[in-house]
Amino acid sequence: MNDRIEETLDCCVDRLVRGEGVADVVGGDADLAALLQPLLETSTLVAHQLRCIQPSPEFRQAARTRTRSLFFAKLARREANPGFLFMWWQRRWATAMATVMVACLASLGVLAASVNALPSGFFYPVKTTTEQMRLSLTVSDVDRAQLQLEYTERRLSEMTRMAGRGDTETVLTLAAEATRLIIQMCTGALFGVDCGESEMGFLLTSPAASAAVAPAVVLGADRDGALELLQRALQVAPEELRPDIEYLVSELSREFDATISHLELATTAP
Amino acid sequence: MPIEQDVVARAARGDADAFAELYESNFDRVYRYLYVRLGNPTEAEDLTQEVFAKVLEVIGTFQWRNVPFASWLFRIAHNKMIDHIRREKRVERVDSEETVLSLDDPDPAELAEHNLQLEKVRHNIGRLSPAQREVIWLRFGAGLSTTEVANALGKSTGTVKALQYNGIVALRKLMEQAG
After folding, report:
1. What is the C-alpha to C-alpha distance for residues B50 and B80, in angstroms, rounded to an integer?
2. Contacts with B17 from chain A: Cβ below 8 Å
3. Looking at domain B1-93, does it have CATH number 1.10.1740.10?
4. Among A144, A157, A239, B132, which is 20 to 30 Å from B50 by CA?
5. Which of the following CATH numbers is that of domain B106-179: 3.40.50.1110, 3.40.50.620, 1.10.10.10, 3.40.50.150?
6. Do the chains contact at A72 and B16, CB–CB below 8 Å?
7. Model-level pTM?
8. Mean pLDDT per 10-residue segment, chain B (179 residues)
9. What are phi and psi of A106, to 5 degrees?
């Protein structure tokens, strides 16, 4: 008998915690009401009071920012130190695959066609795969950083073009990808910038996060965080990379501002 | 593969969207759990960040084995809280220093009434047995299911249901006595 009461109360608590009222839970069941009504009232009071406790919006945003920084820093560290055996295997594999693929694609003119492809385009996966292969084949840290700078510029340019088409979701994805490339480069062995403890303005640009924060706010935070990282990288950058980083700093501000303007125009347009 | 299992697996592989999904769906309830346990919003905020930093660090070691992700997460939250209490060498606060309630329409009188009620509830829950208290915090504060609570505490679902029932009965009596 006791087991049955505990079981019944448990089912009711499930519904009360989800926000249903005692009347909904009991329905027209007079026996259930007689048996559990006082306990359900207590449960409702507890559930209601505790549900009111919410983190403040400022803390929510600051915590999201910090977690995102930690997430990308961890990802960048992992990608920068994949382990000797994995690197050896990956390089050999990538060399073989790249040779075959480049030969095939070049003969078809696909590589040339993919250079200006946008995320919505048919050849875009060719473009990103080729980039990944070039990155994994590059041994020198300076050459790798140069490629990362070049690919970041591409993502930024694509972001502005997609904003012109009103595709906000792709814009946020491209901003996140540009940010990831910058974090990857800055936290790599060449620069060694530590972004784990900083207060950089990155936000989690997941669909869930974007739903809660306006795209312009997400992009503004990405821009500020990326600029801060690049400024720090600039302080320790080798001479040959400094002009490229300085150029990216100016381009990054320009592309983000243009993208935000596009999105704001789209939302205010009648 | 169940949806949650897939999301956790992707997050462990470094998928930002998957990690963000886990983060967004659990952030408020981790904060709420820590707040009701500690009674101090600043400490709850600090520990919430520590919990997710820990999750990020060890998510690659999470093994499914039919244990829900929330149970694993709240075990981390619980351990962080215990470490914090030991570090601070203090007992859990039954009465909070300050209360932060987020109401849509922050009418001062309504807010004061809510604060008073919340403190009464927290105080009475604090007087339950440790096992009953833990079940009530996890069920009502964190919103975990009975199965998730059972996995988080290493108890059977039957025991959790019994603790929940007895806890609510005791809470009812305490509230009646308090008027």
Report:
1. 8
2. 206-207
3. yes
4. B132
5. 1.10.10.10
6. yes
7. 0.60
8. 80 86 93 90 92 89 79 92 81 52 60 80 91 93 92 92 95 86
9. -60, -40
